[in-house]
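Long-time lurker. I teach an intro course on protein structure, and each term I like to show students one example going from raw sequence to a predicted 3D structure in token notation. This year I'd like something fresh instead of my usual example. Would anyone be willing to generate the tokens for the chain below so I can use it in lecture? Attribution to the forum is fine with me.
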Amino acid sequence: ATLVPPQGGASVVDSLRRNLSAVQAARGLPWVNHPNFAWALTSGELMELPDLRLLEIYNGHPSVNNLGGGGSESAEEMWDAVLSSGRRVYGIAVDDAHVFKRFARELSNPGRGWVVVRAPELSAAALLRSLAAGDFYASTGVVLSDVRASRSEVSIHIAASRPSYADRVGDASPLRYRTYFVGQKGETLAVSVDNPAVYRFKGGERYVRARVVASN
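-- Reply from a regular --
Happy to contribute to a lecture. Here you go:
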């Protein structure tokens, strides 16, 4: 492992460029964290980063303004803006945990966001390769059993489950899911309640991403 100290820079964009480059030079995999923490970044600034490949679209810290507001874009809106410009950038989720012995909404606790990586083996090198290739999905709770894409369609296979408290309260009802297929400039291209949820390409899409929402 190689320590990469803060690189500094003449501006926010310059600093990010220097840091992204330094992490790559150390054979690491850099990403841009919580772009709305302290309202630090805009999609325009993100588009000035040629080495940007991964962007946090969800961060579990209670003070990072994932949803934007007051004229500032949400993290997902920033992602769509970058994707709409023709860039290929993958969205990740993290818990950003700092507090591990007390749990409350206002604390930065573990388990609120993560990625699930498809890799041939459980090794750091294999995980990094799959992350760099976008062979993963980001989640705040929904579990997928598979994601498949071909030249004609993309299918999202959801591992349907019951609420986590079901056994404790005797609730046997399964969760229900809605999948939104999103395209250029954040436009909703289709909505599916099927499992697997399938979107068949029409031919003019610049990109298609999927967001799965569970009923709880």
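Some talking points for your students: Residues 12-25 form the longest helix (14 residues). The radius of gyration is 18 Å.
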